[in-house]
Amino acid sequence: VTIIGMTCFLINVAIRGYVPLFSSNPSAYVEFYTKFHMFSVAATAISGLCYYCIRTQRLSLIKKIILWGCIVYLVILFPILVVSRGTFVVAAVPLTVTIYYLNRSKFRIFVLCLVAIMGIYLLGSNLRGYSDEYLDEHFEPTETESVMLSPKMAFLYAYLTVSHDNFNEAVQNTTGYTWGARQFSPFNVILRIDSIREMRDNGEWYQVRPHLNTANMLAVFYYDFHEWGVIVSTFLWAVVFGIMQGFYQKSKGAFSLLVLGYAMNPVVLSFFASWVNMFTLWVFWGVIFIS
Question: pLDDT of 145-168, one tens digit each?
Answer without folding.
Answer: 556 667 667 777 777 888 999 999
